[in-house]
Amino acid sequence: MTESKPTDKHTSIPLPEGYLPTENKVLSAVTEIAKGMATVISHVGREPVTEEYPEVMPEMTNRFHGRLSLLAKSDGTDLCIGCKACAKVCPCDDLIQIEMHRDGDKKPVIDQFTIDMGRCIFCGNCTEVCPVDCIKMLPDFELADYSREALVLDKFDLTLKGNESDEWRAAHDLVPTV
Amino acid sequence: MAIPQLELPEKPGFSSLQGVTFDQGLSTEDMVINIGPQHPSTHGVLRLVTTINGEIVKDMEPVIGYLHRSKEKMAEGRSYFQYQPTIDRVEYLSSFFDHYAYVTALEGIANLKVPKRVQYIRVICMELNRITSHLLWFGTFLLDLGATSPFFYAFRDREAIFDLFEELTGARMMYNYFRFGGVNADMPVGWLDQVRGVINELPARFDEYEAIATKNPIILDRCLGVGLFNLQDCLDYGVTGPAMRACGVDNDLRKTQPYSSYEDFTFDVPTESVGDVYARYKVRMAEMRESLKIIHQALDNMPGGDTAEVKKIQAEVDVVANEIKEAQKRVALAKKQEQEPVAADVTLAEKTIPVINADWQTYGQKVNLMTFKPPAGEAYSQVESPRGLLGCYVISDGTPKAYRVKWRGASFSNLTILPSLMIGNLYPDLMAIFGSLDIILPEVDR
């Protein structure tokens, strides 16, 4: 700690005259407290604004940033083309890991697609750059689990069925790819 | 350690202290107490090493850095778009402002045009965000002074605005919505009316808050004449925002250097002349009402109107544009096959392809976010955040990653004045003075 501190000059700034209330403080105090209490009491019987969460599930909006998932084509086959754009824009290091190879017709085959949801910050960057609208966010926010390992989702956990993907696309006005 | 003899300052505000002398022959001893880092009233993790003599504060030293996450260094290892979501975490109560500062700095470097519609959407977002930030301040400030009910009322109204943000951006607080030269997505259909519905109810709510708090005798006793500083102190310490405007100067970037079409809106900059805790309280309460004025004007004059109308016009334009493109293709095909094209096609193909009004789009010029590479250069952008002047300085060396990003947070500068306000003051005034400065610790530590 330094020995000398700046002197206290602020407390010596004069207040303008008549700034502090000079009239009968008791009278104004009683009326103002009564006014405040009346306002508070007027809230009695008001409809509650909270929801009883586990019993009443909140309805999430269309753009909600929830659990990540991979949409599939309508027939249930992979939509992902393995371009790794999502992994490139993700602010968390190595959160999204993709292993892929190309088959005889040079078509991409996704071997493994892993997302560590425990480290995801739900920013939505990956969903924005996906060229085939494959990686998307679901309105699912109940992600708690018993271990960190359980939050590492692989391709099987992430991929939606064909009809679920179609439902998602219909709800978001997306033209189905292929 | 020789501690300078404490002289009881003349403190005009606290009337009960007038004429009382503490030097009555009693031997008193200095005591050092630690306030924080885990303390409900420090709004985060701030540690105040305080030396007190009785009730009088003799020395105070803020210890910061408990929440340091190297936000500036992080920018150097990530691409511009990759870094953007982490800005939300710097100042999580009003992160639209941080995004705005960052995005405009890069728009300056890359020379991107921002459509009018985007500017208006940004204004609505920022002003709503200012209200949520001030509402949280209102609730916690009164909670520090011992009032509990206003906290719940403020959070109720804040939640209504967060629902709007969730509809727009998908997240309640970590928005990640502004983009270089535009916004992430256009507003949902009917969002403008939802905003109108929420903000029409707010003035009555503000009246309610004022009825509870503004003239309350306890609030008056604890706030009037407490924590005084003047304009010279603001300049010395770099205090900005509502704390500066409470000293009688109408310094507001929205007026002095209008950005994002603020020059289109008529609004007042609320000021108070005294510069005490109560003045800062009144400035913030008045600012929320001014924000409502701005939002109303932005809603009414939104270029293109509601998204449904823009979509309808876009669909009409698309039909015509498609016809022309098809005709051009047919003409090209006929020329290739050395045939005479149909006369109707030729006249149609010569027309210019119609485009929707440039002001109505959500992007001026769409950049590829993954490979966004602004030219070498530097830009500083500043924005009037709820806490004061927020600046972002970006240096680009032409690579996809920033060479340097520097943040100027208002909270850090506003915090520096706290020790000199407290020395010689009463210890119980700490929470009133500290609360009135409206500091958020993530922005101090970054």
Largest sheet of chain A: 3 strands, antiparallel
Q: What percent of residues of chain B adopt helix (DSSP H or I)?
A: 40-55%
| Span of the ends, CA to CA of chain A | 70 Å
Q: Overall pLDDT of chain B, averaged?
A: 84
Alpha-carbon Rg of chain A, integer: 29 Å
Main sheet: strand order of chain A: 2-3-5
Globally, the shape of chain B reads elongated
Number of domains of chain B: 2
- Helical content of chain A stands at 10-25%
Oligomer: heterodimer
CATH architecture of the largest domain in chain B: Orthogonal Bundle
The CATH topology of the domain at 68-171 in chain A turns out to be Alpha-Beta Plaits
Shape of chain A: elongated
Order of helices and strands of chain B: EEEHHHHHEEHHHHHHHHEEEHHHH
Describe it:
The complex is a heterodimer of chains A (178) and B (446). Chain A has helices at residues 25-41, 85-89, 125-129, 155-158, 162-171; strands at residues 68-70, 96-102, 108-116, 135-137, 152-153. By secondary structure, chain A is of the alpha+beta class. Chain A has a domain at 68-171: Alpha-Beta Plaits (2-Layer Sandwich). Chain A has a 3-stranded antiparallel sheet with strand order 2-3-5. In chain A, a hairpin with a 5-residue loop joins strand 2 and strand 3 (108-116). The longest helix of chain A has 17 residues, at 25-41. Chain A starts with 24 loop residues before the first helix and ends in a 7-residue tail after the last helix. Chain B is mostly helical. Chain B folds into 2 domains: 71-300 and 367-445, Cytochrome-c3 Hydrogenase, chain B (Orthogonal Bundle); 307-356. Chain B has a 3-stranded antiparallel sheet with strand order 1-2-3. Chain B has a 3-stranded antiparallel sheet with strand order 6-7-8. The longest helix of chain B has 30 residues, at 307-336. Residues 1-6 and 8-20 of chain B have low confidence and may be disordered. Classes of the chains: A alpha+beta (178), B mainly alpha (446). Chains A and B meet through helix 1, helix 2 and helix 3 of A and helix 2, helix 5, helix 6 and helix 15 of B.
